[in-house]
Amino acid sequence: MKERILIFLLLFSFTFSVSAQTEGARKSAEARLIENFGTYNCEDIKSRLIILHLALSEEPKSKGIVIVYEGKYAKYVDARNGKSTIKYILPSVGESIFRTREMQDILVFFKFPMENFLFIDGGFRENFEVELWVVPNDAKMPKPTPTLETMKYRKGAPMKTVCGGS
User: Cβ(62)–Cβ(137) under 8 Å?
Assistant: First the structure.
């Protein structure tokens, strides 16, 4: 009788353990938004991409998804009283492509494996925005969530930044 009870308890604990592990695996198979941000400086974007890379290194079979939304850019303008104010300006045609290439250059500079990253054109939002996702191998890809159907553009070339990898 004691043996039967012991076997029952062992089977019950094994079943419970397998069920808990399966549930944990399901939870880890979801895409996770690491963070989203808008206007940035070069050091800021470098640190955010490093954080994404570190998150990927904790989950080796995952992909880093970078969704880039076209939108207005914040520009700091010095006022006469010495205080900076933010002015939003329209993007020029191809501005989000230019920003995407900057981020890709940073990844190459740091020798992060490019096959671990996927860049997606997210469409249009009121302001420029980037989302950084970690997506496990068996998880659904995040879908872009644009908030505008069209974008007004300014004339001229994309705003120059001194970013790149270095």
Answer: yes
Sign of CA dihedral 145, 37, 33, 92: positive
Cβ(103)–Cβ(161) under 8 Å?
no
Give this prediction's pTM: 0.77
DSSP 48-110: HHHHHHHHHHHSTT-EEEEEEEEEEEEEEEE-TTS-EEEEEEPPBTTHHHHHHHHHHHHHHHT
Dihedral pair phi/psi, residue 73, rounded to 5°: -110, 140
CA 73/CA 39 separation, integer angstroms: 6
Residue 154 tokens read as: 């300014």
Q: What is the structure's pLDDT at 92?
A: 92
Q: How far is CA 160 from CA 14, 100, 142, in A?
A: 60, 13, 30
- What are the structural domains, with CATH classification, of the chain? 29-166 (3.30.1330)
Averaged pLDDT score across all residues of the chain: 82
User: What number is the average pLDDT over the span 33-44?
Assistant: 87
The sign one gets for the Cα dihedral 140, 59, 17, 15 is positive
Please check the confidence at residue 133 and state whether its pLDDT lies above 70. Answer: yes
